[in-house]
Amino acid sequence: MEDQLWADVDGYVNTLLIREDETLLDAIRASAQAGLPPIHVSPAQGKFLHLIARLQGAREVLEIGTLGGYSTIWLARALPPGGRLVTLEADPRHAEVARKNLERAQVSSSVDLRVGLAEDLLRALAAERRPPFDLVFIDADKAGIPEYFTWSLRMSRRGAAIIVDNVVRKGSVLDAASTDPGVLGVRRFNELLATERRVSATTVQTVGAKGYDGFTLAVVVGE
Ligand code: SAH
Ligand code: DHB
Ligand code: MG
């Protein structure tokens, strides 16, 4: 019941404020057609990421977990000329769908899509000579969040924003006895955050077309 109401309000917001264009709708359609799971961010969340990237004036963006590239398109569209987005995806089938979606959205020239396990790709990325990231969006497997966050922090400038998706998971984050690797990952991430003096963070719970969940925003305030 409530879930339907949340979805309806998201629909109302989408109609008035988000107005996804055909390119974004195509990306969702192509992803569904290829059998990808419908776990992309909602339109309102996608636009939220886009606006955060603009507020941040982000030129160097890192995304962990591409899927079909829906959130990637929202983020890439916020880049200034010369801005770059690196996005990491483990599943070659997902990456292939994403590549076509990014091409259709005409953002391929600013997006560096890398296929492999995030843990390996992050190590390689950290060894490259490149400017630090201004914004990171962590949205891959939830068990990996602590490790992805640690690498992200290492590669981000002071003032950078690190956003982590799916950190509430219908409240399951409270279950200290959980053996779910995702819940364990989120809980270990929170423990890391609690003692990490280089970031200032908050978590905002969300409801909407994607149900009850939440995201964490961490800003790098020290080195
Ligand atoms: N950000 C996307 C949704 C990502 S879904 C959007 O909102 O549009 C999570 C993605 O992370 C899936 O495509 C999954 O294949 C990928 N993934 C899971 N484990 C991974 C890992 N260890 N390394 C890289 N990607 C991973
Ligand atoms: C899942 C992953 C996501 O990134 C998400 O937004 C929702 C669900 C999942 O793995 O189930
Ligand atoms: Mg997610």
Category by helix and strand content: alpha/beta
Helicity range of the residues? Answer: 40-55%
* Chemical compounds bound to the protein: S-adenosyl-L-homocysteine, 3,4-dihydroxybenzoic acid, magnesium ion
What is the count of β-strands? 7
Low-confidence stretches at least 5 residues in length (pLDDT < 50)? none
Q: Which value, in Å, is the CA radius of gyration?
A: 17 Å
Strand order of the largest sheet: 3-2-1-4-5-7-6
> How does the major sheet shape up?
7 strands, mixed
Order of helices and strands: HHHEHEHEHEHEHEE
Q: What share of the residues does DSSP label as strand, in percent?
A: 15-25%
Helix run count: 8
From the spread of the alpha carbons, the general shape counts as: globular
Quote the average pLDDT: 97
End-to-end Cα distance, whole Å, is 46 Å
Descriptive notes:
- The protein has eight helices and seven strands, in the order αααβαβαβαβαβαββ.
- The protein is α/β, with parallel strands linked by helices and 223 residues long.
- A hairpin with a 6-residue loop joins strand 6 and strand 7 (213-220).
- Helix 2 runs antiparallel to helix 5, helix 3 (43-56) runs parallel beside helix 4 (70-76) and helix 6 (118-127) packs parallel to helix 7.
- It binds S-adenosyl-L-homocysteine, 3,4-dihydroxybenzoic acid (DHB) and magnesium ion.
- S-adenosyl-L-homocysteine (SAH) binds next to helix 4 and strand 2.
List the SSEs and their pairings.
Layout: H1 2-18, H2 22-33, H3 43-56, E1 60-64, H4 70-76, E2 84-89, H5 92-104, E3 111-115, H6 118-127, E4 133-138, H7 145-154, E5 156-165, H8 181-195, E6 199-206, E7 213-220
Parallel strand pairs: 1-2, 1-4, 2-3, 4-5
Antiparallel strand pairs: 5-7, 6-7
Helix pairs in contact: 2-5, 3-4, 6-7
Bound molecules: S-adenosyl-L-homocysteine, 3,4-dihydroxybenzoic acid (DHB) and magnesium ion.
